[in-house]
Fold these 2 entries.
Entry 1:
Amino acid sequence: MSVTVRVPAKVNVQLAVGAARPDGFHDLANVFLAVGLHDEVTATPSPDGLRITCDGPDAGQVPLDRTNLAARAALALAERYGRDADVHLHIAKDIPVAGGMAGGSADGAGALLACDALWGTGASREELLDICAELGSDVPFSLVGGAALGTGRGERLTELEVGGTFHWVFAMASRGLSTPAVFREFDRLGEGREIPEPVASRDLLDALAKGDPDALAATVSNDLQPAALSLFPELADTLAAGRAAGALASLVSGSGPTTAFLARDAGAADAVAGALRSSGTCRTVRAAAGPVPGATVIREEPDQ
Ligand code: C5P
């Protein structure tokens, strides 16, 4: 048998970051929105033990060893249920790698759900969410999807109401940014300054609930943006190109370097995407709308 799970990318419409904690992580008020760019993870029994393969435009940058979150998810589930992680995980990758869109986290959540279905472990949703939180701060959201507020290090989720579909354009950069490096730069830039407790913006949550793109555009924010720009100054040109093309809002997605542009509707998103493509300030451009569901089993096939 084989099981295929589809998992969305995310954009952070608000990312409020507190001071570094003693464990090195940062408390966050992280408002996630799942958007329609997806990876697919297929799990198939593998008599030779755990194996990872990957295809897609960025596949060359994906680690195929046990540092891959998909491998770690399979190993964590196998350990919990006292079995071997004898599985081949194939990742069909469409989410940019090291882009600030939770592509690695998506593969972790996807592998977990696929192995769970393949092995028939019967794990509860809470157990799966616990394993996701162990794997990484963004992994629980990849499982849940939709829209959610993440607190703690981002792993404690409260699902949010969204009153409409938001249309986005994403500009992928010529290289990646390391999330720990961006957080370290955030700490460096904030040295000697009082960092306030991160709090979700009431106006932003209202804008999401109403499905109002103008109100959302007025309230989006990302505390990691100055750090991402400091490490990758050319991103300022991409942000300016999107604004000039009529985007309602432009911001760095998560720790970057993908930049995100909010448009009023699908037609406006196409126009912004076209202008960004011809601006020469990014590698590729994709339009995607959200919210969309989290990790979902889309195929279960018996042995051939
Ligand atoms: O949880 P995850 O493995 O995705 O985090 C990657 C890195 O990002 C952490 O090692 C840490 O440097 C940084 N991080 C952080 N605070 C968070 C989430 C991530 O400092 N809330």
Entry 2:
Amino acid sequence: LASRDFHPENTVISIGDVNIGGGDLVVMGGPCAVESPEQIDEIASLVKAAGGQVLRGGAFKPRTGPYSFQGVGVEGLVMMAEAGKKHGLLTITEVMTPEYVDVCAEYADILQVGTRNMQNFDLLRKLGTCGKPVLLKRGFSATYDEFLNAAEYILAGGNPNVMLCERGIRTFETYTRNTLDLSAIPVLQSLSHLPVISDPSHGTGRRELVEPMTKASVAAGADGLIIEMHTDPDNSMTGDGVQSLFPDQFAALLRDLEKLAPLV
Ligand code: PEP
Ligand code: MN
């Protein structure tokens, strides 16, 4: 079902007046984690003002260690839904377990599967019937074939609205957190009809690389971007402050993107 051989036309995922995969560039921006109502409200206003269409933020965080901040949970879903509604943005949030799919689908417009859960097949099956579009992140050691097979689980479950997200893979390089695999963008677009989103934040792990790798992703043909932005990155509640743009950098980047590709 994911293959272009059996579905030659691009899949366009329409949510409200935002079309993902239809030729317009879609920008999803926001913090790694929802921290408080004030934090997500302020960031939502900045994403909207900069021209973004989707507010990102994790209420459930897949942390490497069990003692790290794990997210604010269901309350975070409520905070983000309110901020999205108030500022006219769609919302995307990560769901980590099948049990939480229904509540995440109730509050968010798009459900995100994180890199660590790309092959959580019970979760993927459950997302097949969730009724909401899914952004599936590539596992950090997954081949294109494994990635497309993971998407296949969601599609086979009855959900045609899947977007693929390149978020960097693990290589021998340690200067960057991950290596953003730009080739994934044209390769996945040729093998599949699903929209391809790039995540230059997790793909590099370094704030100063987000701008050039965002532009490179657009040049490579990405259908959209998911970018971390925080009003106070140095004091953010996850370690991802180091890769989060300041609001003025985010706004400047989107102004530059307007020159490369029309924003929705
Ligand atoms: C995130 O988007 O904050 C995240 C945890 O991403 P990934 O699953 O790509 O690490
Ligand atoms: Mn993050």
